[in-house]
Amino acid sequence: MFEKLKKTFSKFVESVVSVVKEEKLDERDAEKLLSDLYFDLVDSDVAVDVADAVVEELKKRLVGIKVPRFGDREAAVKKAVYEALLNVLGDVPDVDFYKEAREMLEKTRPFVVMFLGPNGYGKTTTLAKLAFHLQEMGFRVVAAAADTFRAGAREQLEEHGRRVGFRVVGGAYGSDPAAVAYDAIQHAKSRGYHFVLIDTAGRMHTDTNLMDELRKIQRVAEPHRSIFVFDAQLGNEALEIAKYYSKYVNIDGMIATKVDAYPKGGSILTFIYVLKRPVYFLGVGQTYRDLVKFSKAEYISQLLALT
């Protein structure tokens, strides 16, 4: 994963190490190296604003940086890059979804999660993966088939339900999706389920009827978390869609899908920086187990090949 972005930072670190003179990096050398890094970042799906922020932060930390003449110069430079990237994302803390859900379940039940995002991003599959992990932890899960627009949407969710073992509450095609979500929550309350996971429609994001529909579901279901699911491979295109969604509905956090087939790696950095929302999980494969918790420190360590 993230091979291109890893190579970008590896090349940058090697370049800095090779030009450091007299135990520190001067401003002229730093400007040239950071200019090269900027273009490599943009080529790796890092948005222009984010690349600017990364370069500016690195400039503050690297100009005049002291590195040991005979020690591990690479480690000293990597440490500066690690701290710079962590600082760029400093406004958005990591969130442990499972921990937050457990704390909420001590006060109320069910914990309601609404999934948002266009068709084809892996929204329904991601819902099923989360249901799988929650059930592995001993929780009981019911899903709401609130995409009453797309033919086959309910059957797709029901097939996941059969494979994973969670119940699906649905309605007729064309029926009110907010009513489906409400029915699923009432069903969960009456039968003691821990989680309600709401699948929603994802037709063209510019469809104002869809946005009105999603707003109504949020108003009726009052989800504890609304998660935008994005296809990491689509980079800035997915970012623009997420920004459009955020004008109409609340987004608490995100899940990046298809990360295992995404060599560039920059869209995750971009989404966190621009949307100021945490990434809860990464989808890293085809099986239900392939949903892993995300942490900024681990992500950056991976980019810099730190162990």
From TrEMBL:
<protein>
    <submittedName>
        <fullName>Signal recognition particle-docking protein FtsY</fullName>
    </submittedName>
</protein>
<dbReference type="InterPro" id="IPR027417">
    <property type="entry name" value="P-loop_NTPase"/>
</dbReference>
<dbReference type="GO" id="GO:0005886">
    <property type="term" value="C:plasma membrane"/>
</dbReference>
<keyword id="KW-0963">Cytoplasm</keyword>
<dbReference type="Pfam" id="PF00448">
    <property type="entry name" value="SRP54"/>
</dbReference>
<dbReference type="InterPro" id="IPR042101">
    <property type="entry name" value="SRP54_N_sf"/>
</dbReference>
<dbReference type="InterPro" id="IPR003593">
    <property type="entry name" value="AAA+_ATPase"/>
</dbReference>
<dbReference type="GO" id="GO:0005047">
    <property type="term" value="F:signal recognition particle binding"/>
</dbReference>
<keyword id="KW-0675">Receptor</keyword>
<keyword id="KW-0472">Membrane</keyword>
<dbReference type="InterPro" id="IPR004390">
    <property type="entry name" value="SR_rcpt_FtsY"/>
</dbReference>
<dbReference type="GO" id="GO:0003924">
    <property type="term" value="F:GTPase activity"/>
</dbReference>
<keyword id="KW-1003">Cell membrane</keyword>
<dbReference type="InterPro" id="IPR000897">
    <property type="entry name" value="SRP54_GTPase_dom"/>
</dbReference>
<dbReference type="InterPro" id="IPR036225">
    <property type="entry name" value="SRP/SRP_N"/>
</dbReference>
<keyword id="KW-0378">Hydrolase</keyword>
<feature type="domain" description="SRP54-type proteins GTP-binding">
    <location>
        <begin position="278"/>
        <end position="291"/>
    </location>
</feature>
<keyword id="KW-0547">Nucleotide-binding</keyword>
<dbReference type="InterPro" id="IPR013822">
    <property type="entry name" value="Signal_recog_particl_SRP54_hlx"/>
</dbReference>
<comment type="similarity">
    <text>Belongs to the GTP-binding SRP family.</text>
</comment>
<dbReference type="GO" id="GO:0005525">
    <property type="term" value="F:GTP binding"/>
</dbReference>
<dbReference type="GO" id="GO:0005737">
    <property type="term" value="C:cytoplasm"/>
</dbReference>
<keyword id="KW-0342">GTP-binding</keyword>
<dbReference type="Pfam" id="PF02881">
    <property type="entry name" value="SRP54_N"/>
</dbReference>
<dbReference type="GO" id="GO:0006614">
    <property type="term" value="P:SRP-dependent cotranslational protein targeting to membrane"/>
</dbReference>
